[in-house]
Amino acid sequence: MALVVQKYGGSSVADAESIKRVAKRIAAAKRAGDDVVVVVSAMGDTTDDLLDLAKQVSPLPPQREMDILLTAGERISMSLLAMAINNLGVRAKSFTGQQAGVITDAVHGKARIVDVVPTRVRETVEKGQVAIVAGFQGVTESTNDVTTLGRGGSDTTAVALAAGLGADVCEIYTDVDGVFTADPRIVSTARKLDRVSYDEMLELAASGAKVLMLRCVEYGRRYSVPIHVRSSFTNHTGTLVTNEKNEDSDVEQPIIAGVAHDRSEAKITVVGVPDVPGKAARIFQVVGDAGVNIDMIVQNVSVAATGLTDISFTLPALDGTAALTALTERQPDIGFHSLQFDDSIGKLSLVGAGMKSHPGVSAKLFAALADAGINIEMISTSEIRLSVVTRADDLDDAVRAVHTAFELDAEQDEAVVYGGTGR
């Protein structure tokens, strides 16, 4: 008997029929002898609908009240799913994040899990029942306020619960058959990966691959929770995210795990920065104090005649206004000439643990983009990742060109997005 934590995304529980289909899968796992804990997202577009409703009522709603509102979506899903499972003759009980013991910090809208005390969930499992937990939400230890974990927070809830319960595996059910070498919506010949390491999955998630959220993979790696990505629409084997080696395979690990892309970033260029020690530090201190995370950074060589340089960096496009406002307020102090904002960029990332021991990966990437007529604006690397910034309009063509250049294409189309979202 295994203890399995299953997570179902919004497209898997989008309507009543979908909920009944998921309930049958859960009931089958329970009848097969496994102990099952389920984490569920809000149905379909419920969260977006609630956000739109809030905007109609208030142009700037308090974050605390927004969190209370948005947690309603998962509460609806958990109770309906529990009803459907009970209807199949399997006992099930639903819990909010608070009832399940998900403890978070006090940052409304993007809280982080600081502890999991799943006492009631464990008691339910020990009674032979299925526990259904609302994802995406928790409660602060200090004020007992409800919080939300940000987009994709249900993935993190599931892995955190799996760690807290000592589960054998955390199964993330989505609307694709696993982790692919590229986004199936862009590359129909993308290949499914049977296994991928935590480090590779972290880089893919950080670079825009939406099948798993970054924080969920971080949690999995920290607590050694195997994450099994599967489709709720099929019975295919999916992809296992783990650092455990496949003992049945003697094949050397592939050089490249996949190609990820991201359209959610923008670029700010600080023009005319005095090229003296400490100026760059002050720029990024201002941006950091505004709560903005920076991704890629490029500093030009200073012009000898003026002693000035330009510094460009990428950041989440939604944080652009906050960064621009903060820098503008400190312009007299820092002494730069002007700011430029560009939200028409796209980031492509090549990820693979084999890059560490195989030369020529960079040359092959740049040659593939050149042959496709795609210009590179910025470059960033890590030990197992190589990222470039291009024009947003060129991003799809860039992904396909690089995917083909590194011989990642399957012989026939096998990448299917059953629910239409890739999550």
Structure overview:
- The chain is α/β, with parallel strands linked by helices and 423 residues long.
- It folds into two domains: 172 residues, 3-Layer(aba) Sandwich (Carbamate kinase), CATH 3.40.1160; 177 residues, VC0802-like (2-Layer Sandwich).
- Helices cover 33% and strands 24% of the residues.
- The chain has twelve helices and 20 strands.
- The strands form four sheets. An eight-stranded mixed sheet has the order 3-6-2-1-9-11-12-10, with helices on both faces.
- The radius of gyration is 23 Å and the shape is globular.
- The relative contact order is 0.12.
- The mean pLDDT is 91.
Any chance you could write out the topology, listing elements then pairs?
Layout: E1 3-8, H1 16-31, E2 35-40, H2 46-57, H3 63-87, E3 92-95, E4 102-104, E5 113-116, H4 119-126, E6 130-134, E7 137-140, E8 146-148, H5 153-165, E9 169-174, E10 195-196, H6 198-206, H7 214-223, E11 227-231, E12 239-241, E13 258-262, E14 265-274, H8 279-289, E15 297-299, E16 308-316, H9 320-329, H10 331-334, E17 338-342, E18 345-351, H11 361-371, E19 378-381, E20 385-391, H12 395-405
Parallel strand pairs: 1-2, 1-9, 2-6, 3-6, 4-7, 9-11, 10-12
Antiparallel strand pairs: 4-5, 7-8, 11-12, 13-18, 14-16, 14-17, 15-16, 18-20, 19-20
Helix pairs in contact: 1-3, 2-3, 5-7, 6-7, 11-12
